[in-house]
Amino acid sequence: MKRILILAAAALLCAWSASAQSGKSIYQKYSDAENVSAVYISPAMFRLIGKIPDLEVGESHVNLAPLIRSLSGLYIITSENSRVNNKMVSEVNHFISSGRYELMMEAKDAGEVVRMYTVGTEKLVNSFVMLSAGGSETTFICLDGQMDRQELEGILVETMKD
């Protein structure tokens, strides 16, 4: 009896971990849907882009090279498909509520809600997720890598000044 309970618990744990969401799995699920635009940038492209020194972000010059070199994946989905929007928001919220992510910022304006989340340590961010939902469009952005928290926060503050 004890063995059966242990095996059942192990099976449940495996099933739970297999169903765990990631930015990549959300991207793969929705990137081919109708009325969905999707962009994936690989580590090879980040190495190439990371050789470019200063890039303009809005009206300011920010050195993105160190941050870009630290990325291992960028997943962007923009959807104008209401069925996909509802499912994607639900899945991203479930993904975020796994307890690992911390709300970094929330902004609400005229029915649109933008939330940014991070997971990592005091010094490093392993994943950054942004979900923007409102009206007929939903956007999901996920950055994975080993990003320096101070650099990421500095870039976000610079770009939000506009």
Structural class: alpha+beta
What is the count of DSSP helices, taking H or I runs of 4+ residues? 6
Report mean pLDDT, rounded to a whole number: 79
What is the rounded distance between the termini? 64 Å
Shape: globular
So what's the oligomer here? Answer: single chain
Order of helices and strands: HHEHEEHEHEEEEH
Helix percent band: 25-40%
State the major sheet: 6 strands, antiparallel
Give the uncertain stretches in residue-range form.
1-20
- How big is the Rg? 18 Å
Structure summary, number of beta strands: 8
How much of the polypeptide forms β-strand, as a percent range? Answer: 35-45%
Number of domains: 1
Strand order of the largest sheet: 1-4-8-7-6-5
Give an account of the 3D structure.
The protein is α+β, with helices and mostly antiparallel strands. The protein has one domain (21-160). The protein is 40% helix and 39% strand. It has helices at 2-18, 23-30, 43-49, 65-69, 82-96, 149-160, and strands at residues 36-41, 54-57, 60-63, 71-79, 102-109, 112-120, 124-134, 137-148. The termini are far apart.
